[in-house]
Known about the structure:
The chain has 11 helices and 10 strands. By secondary structure, the protein is of the alpha+beta class. The strands form 2 sheets. A 5-stranded antiparallel β-sheet has the order 2-1-5-4-3, sandwiched between helices. The radius of gyration is 31 Å and the shape is elongated. It starts with 6 loop residues before the first helix and ends with a helix.
Amino acid sequence: xxxxxxxxxxxxxxxxxxxESYAIILLDLDGYIENWNKGAEQIKGYKAQEIIGQHFRIxxxxxxxxxxxxxxxxxxxxxxxxxxxxxxxxxxNGERFWGSVLITAIHDENNQVIGFTKVTRDLTDKxxxxxxxxxxEDRYSLMVAEVxxxxxxxxxxxxxIENWNKGAEQIKGYKAxxxxxxNFRLFYTEEDxxxxxxxNMLEKAIREGRSQDxxxxxxxxxxxxxxxxxxxxxxxxxxxxxxxxxxxxxxxERKNAEDTLRxxxxxx
Length: 268
């Protein structure tokens, strides 16, 4: 960098040099490193005197170097003004970290590209957290999908079905491709629909967070089963209702046994 810096430029350079949360690097037109701040030293592990003059492809994995990703990024920055990318990067000791990278083209008075700034942030912890959460969500989704004793259904705000597990298929008789997109009112008897029971259950779930009911429901083949139903309102981060989950258990055998017992007691 030029030694003829104004006091303001000197202060600005010192600010950049002292930043530790971000690796801020100055590259020439070909991607060779010209300057290096404390953040770069902390994140990547090289002292300035070890790395200045080397090409920034040194931070990329062999696979990325083979595909010429570093060269493609500075070419994109030269053409579009900047290039952004997230991926695995290499530290001096060979360890990998997940870097969020922004490369910005530097222009002279004639708007000609004369180099680049490269800002990198280490997001490894966030990447690991996201991957852990994703794996957890995947396992949870698989768990829900495989449950067979309960029909677990995801519905939108209008009660239209968005997701359907094996238990729902087993209890209600519909394949997922047959039922997704249809309204859950389909499972209710004509008597219940006339008195507005499906809508009343959604309204109660909206007011109180959940609604519960037991009653006769309809399968695909028209046969009835005695269902124990819980509908729970689902909320986003701002506490806005974004849909409902509906949990149904087939209690027909229990219902029949209770009815038989009542008849027997009545006869006695």
